Amino acid sequence: ANTVSEQITPIWDYIVTLYLIGVIAMTLYFLVSLVRLALFILKGEHIKQDDCRIILHRHNSVAPFAWCGYIMMPRRDWYEFGQMIVCHEKAHIECRHWIDLLFMQAAIIITWYCPAIWLLRNELHTLHEYEADSRVLASGVKREEYQMFLIKKTVGARFATLSNCLNHSSLKKRITMMLSSKPTGKARVRAFVMVPAMALALIGLATPAVSAVINEVSAATP
């Protein structure tokens, strides 16, 4: 019995070590993303428009994105599509989508090994883009004009997962959503409530104490 126990213990040590390495790696990635965001803000050209803070940078390959009250875009995009980009990214800011992404990033750090959490993050980005598109169209922008703008801006590298990039979601899905009937308020609320609820459930299942209780209940159930 002691021999079996001695064999099992090193295996768990390896698993825990691998898990901690993953947590450290994801935490470092998060911190690097924050540093990159800070550099964009510090080095960019600042423009104040209404209650928005627009940051113009020289990285033309990076798609426009919004984070924590800031709208960041290449200087070239500002002159070509400035107001349309501001309208879209301002919707993300007003909905405080960056807070959702912070919670999601925390869940990813804890449950990085779970494929479902990565799929959940993609779904969260998609929901954010649907809501931003809906707000842009509700502001009076013509649907055809906005769709053409999205087609032109599908190219470009995406920034860190902490932000909502303009080209983050499937363009085909977004255009289809615009053409479909507008979802009801209750459906939208259910969608946004399910995302954090599923994230919390995944975190709970990943906790050893919770998993142990679930296993005991399952074993006791005939």
TrEMBL record:
Residues in Peptidase M56 domain copies: 83-178
Pfam families, sorted: Peptidase_M56
InterPro entries, per the entry: Beta-lactam_resp_regulator, Peptidase_M56
Annotated signal sequence range: none
Sorted UniProt keywords: Membrane, Transmembrane, Transmembrane helix
Residues passing through the membrane, by range: 18-42, 102-120, 191-214
Protein name per its UniProtKB record: TonB family domain-containing protein
Species in which this protein is naturally found: Bacteroides caecimuris
